[in-house]
Amino acid sequence: MKKLFALAVLCTGVFAAAWFSSCNNSSSDLSEKKKADSLAKAVERGRYLANHVAACIHCHSERDFSRFSGPVVPGTEGSGGLKYDSRLLEAIPGTIYAKNITPDKETGIGSWTDEEILRSITQGISKNGDTLFPLMPYVSYNKMAREDLLNIIAYLRTLKPIYKKVPARQLMIPISMAYPAPALKPSVEGNSKPAETDPVKYGEYLITIADCATCHTPFEKGAFNFARIYAGGNLFTHEDFRVMSANITPDSTGIGSWTEEQFLNKFTLYRDAKNITAYPGKQNTVMPLADYSGMTDSDLKALYAYLRTVKPMPNKINKYPGTDDKEWKMGDMKVVK
Ligand code: HEC
Ligand code: HEC
After folding, report:
1. What local confidence, expressed as pLDDT, does residue 323 receive?
2. Residue 52 CB-half CA count within 13 A
3. Which of 199, 213, 278, 327 is deepest in the core (most CB within 10 A)?
4. Based on the number of CB atoms within 10 Å of its own CB, is 229 exposed (0-12), middle (13-18) or buried (19 or more)?
5. Closest approach atom of ligand 1 to CA 169
6. Ligand 2 neighbours by CB, cut-off 6 Å
7. What distances in angstroms separate CA 331 from CA 170, 235, 267, 321, 325, one per listed residue?
C-alpha cells in the first residue's frame, strides 16, 4: 500500500514530468497485458466447456457419422444445420435445426450483444423474442455459473464466422406445449460453481451443465420421468444405426459394478483418434464421446463420484436393440448444407 502511494506521488510530482509519462505508460501496458491474459484465460475455459463439457459445438456443427460418435467436421464449428426430428427421438415433436452460432453478422450471432446471447442460452429466448425449443438445453444452462457462461460467450466470439442460413423449425405443437413449462430462474446472477475439491458437488455441477440427463432420463408417456433420472432407455434412431441410452445409475442393471477406471475408459478411449476413425457399423452412438474424451481426468472422476450418489434404478438396457429387425423406421439426422 505504502509503496503504491509512494509511486503515485513520484508519478504525479512536479519534478517528475519525465517519470509521469513513463509511469503512466508502464502501468497501462501492465493493465493491457493483464486484460489480455484474463481474456485468454476466459476464452480457454469457454473453449473447454463449449467443446468438451456443455458440448455446444457438437450440436451446432456438422457431424461425421461415418465415424464413431459423429465427431465434429473440422471447419464447420458453430455453423449449425444439424437436423433433429421425431424419427431420431420420440421426444421431438417436429423438425428442429441447430442454429448458426458463429460470429457471422447476417446468419450467425455476430451482431448480438453478450446479454442477448446470455438470455438465449439461459432463458431460451432468441434475439427476436422467439422461445427456443428445449432440445437446446437452456433449462440446464440456467444453472450454470455466470462466469462460465461469459467464458463460453467469449469463446464463441473467437470462432470463424461462417455464412450459413439454417431452415426454420417446424413444430407439430405450439412451442408452449413442447414440455411442461420448466422452472427457470430469471437470472443466473446467484449461480455458483462448487469447489473442484468437492468431487461429488462439482460432479453434480458438471453433469448438469453437460446435460447428460436429457439423453439418459426415460421419456415416458410424453414427458421426461425425472423420478427415474439417469435410468436410460431412450431409443435414438439414426439413419445408419439405432442405439438406446444406457442406465447410468449405480444399480446392478446400470453402472453399479463399474470401477472409476472403467468409467474413465469409456471416455478416454476416444482420445486416440484411431478409435474414432474406425467405421463402427451399426454399433455407433449418439453420445458425443469424441468431444467428451477431451474432458480432464479430474472432471471425469467428479462425474463418476456424483453418479455413485444418485438413486439406483433397475432398468436393463439392450444398447443395440433389434438391429436386424426390418420393421424399424430409419431416422434422420442429416445435415442441411
Ligand atoms: C442438444 C443439442 C444442443 C446443445 C448441446 C446446444 N444447443 Fe444451442 N441450440 C440447439 C438447437 C436445436 C437450437 C434451435 C432451437 C429452436 O430453433 O427452437 C439452438 C439454439 C441456440 C441459440 C439461439 C440462436 C438463434 O439464432 O436463435 C444459441 C445462441 C445457442 N443455441 C447457443 C448454444 C450454446 C452456447 C451452447 C452450449 C452452452 C448450446 N447452444 C448447446 C441445440 C443445442
Ligand atoms: C446425445 C445423447 C447422450 C448424451 C448427451 C449423453 N449420453 Fe451417455 N449414452 C448415450 C447412449 C445412446 C448410450 C449407449 C451407447 C453408448 O455406450 O455409447 C450412452 C452410454 C453411456 C455410458 C455407458 C454405459 C454402459 O452401460 O455401457 C455412460 C457411462 C454414459 N453414457 C454416461 C454419460 C454421461 C456422464 C454423460 C454426460 C457427460 C452422457 N452420458 C451424455 C447417449 C447420451
Report:
1. 55
2. 16
3. 199
4. middle
5. 17
6. 210, 212, 215-216, 236, 243, 245-246, 248, 255, 266, 285-287, 292, 303, 319
7. 17, 11, 26, 15, 14
* CA of residue 201 to ligand 1 center, whole Å: 26
What's the N-to-C CA distance of the chain in angstroms?
60
pLDDT of residue 25: 55
The number of the ligand nearest the C-alpha atom of 295 reads 2
Inter-residue contact 72 to 58 (CB < 8 Å): yes
User: What's the CA-to-centroid distance between 55 and ligand 1, angstroms?
Assistant: 10
Chunked mean pLDDT (size 10), the chain, 337 residues: 36 38 63 92 98 96 94 97 84 91 98 98 95 92 97 98 96 78 86 97 98 93 90 90 95 98 97 89 92 98 98 95 50 37
d(CA 293, CA 200) in angstroms, rounded, equals 20
Question: What distance in Å separates the CA atoms of residue 116 and residue 312, rounded to the nearest whole number?
Answer: 40
Q: Is 136 in the pocket of ligand 1 (CB under 6 A)?
A: yes
CA angle centred on 327, ends 321 and 329, rounded to 5°: 85
Q: Output the pLDDT for position 226.
A: 93
**Which among 337, 312, 218 has a CA at the least distance from the CA of 256?**
312
The Å distance, Cα 213 to ligand 2 centre, comes to 10
Query: For position 181, what pLDDT does the model report?
Result: 59
**pLDDT at residue 29, rounded to an integer:** 86
What are the residues whose beta carbons fall under 8 Å from the beta carbon of 107, sequence distance 6 or more? 100, 162, 163, 164, 165, 166
pLDDT of amino acid 106: 98
pLDDT of residue 22: 44
Among 49, 60, 128, name the best residue to mutate to test ligand 1's pocket (greatest count of ligand atoms within 8 A of Cβ).
Answer: 60
CA 317 – CA 337 distance, rounded (Å): 35
**Best of 135, 136, 216 for a ligand 1 pocket test (most atoms within 8 Å of beta carbon):** 136
Residue whose CA lies nearest to ligand 2 atom number 8: 287
Nearest CA to ligand 2 atom 7: 287
Which grid coordinates are listed for 10?
Answer: 513520484
